[in-house]
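Agenda item 2: hypoxanthine complex prediction
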Amino acid sequence: MTAAAKIIQHKVPGVAPRVGIILGSGLGGFADAVEDAIALPYGDLPGFPEAGVAGHAGQLVLGTVGKTPVAVCQGRAHYYEHGDASVMKETVRTLKSIGCETLILTNAAGSLMEESGPGSVILINDHINFAATSPLFGEKGNDRFVDLSAAYDADIREKLSTIADDLGIDLPEGVYMWFCGPHFETPAEIRAAKLLGADAVGMSTVPEVILARQAGMKVAAMSIVTNMAAGMSKTALSHEQTMEQAAEGARKVIRLLTAYLEGDV
Ligand code: HPA
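Presented output:
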């Protein structure tokens, strides 16, 4: 059990979330959907990150959505903040320690799919680790050799797709390619990414997926498209644009997640 997990159990006796959720840029509002919410600042939880990027809060929200007890991480740390891919290690392991069997991740991403522009949502079905680093560097033991051949849970994807159909939300599946950031990609890199099979590009999520799979958690992830990837539109890329464009996609993700958690997870 992690030190943070012990603190959480002490502060919130009987806490037993089943689903952990890590919210990306612009998605902090999902925490408002949590009922009977208790918020613990990351600063009280050893190993949890300082939430460094504008648009990220930095607290763990415990409560329920529908019938499902959840633990919502409002804010994440990124590899590019310190050059350390293991910054989310304690967070993911703590979610597992306090009972989460499933981890759902959200992020903001650039789209390589012409038909999925800003405001759309992509359901990630696989990834390409183009940052070529691991949150598990330096770990000992055989469980560091994590199987990623079915990293994004097929049952959860099917449920989310059905929910999306019911809600009339377009939810194409796609491959997420992790770039280290914090700079955006060049048009040449995006052409290369396309050739390699990417549908979306972003600067997060993959380390948490690796950690969650190592911990034996089921994983699902959704990207909010904030922009067409570099070179695919005339708009210059900026963090301001990312934040501005996140709102429409965020509303869709919040509806999808809420409906998922209100059902039988
Ligand atoms: N590239 C990488 N990360 C991103 C992008 C992008 O185009 N948009 C939002 N996050």
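Discussion summary: The beta strands are 19-23, 35-41, 59-65, 68-74, 102-111, 121-129, 173-178, 200-202, 218-228.
Owner for follow-up: CH.
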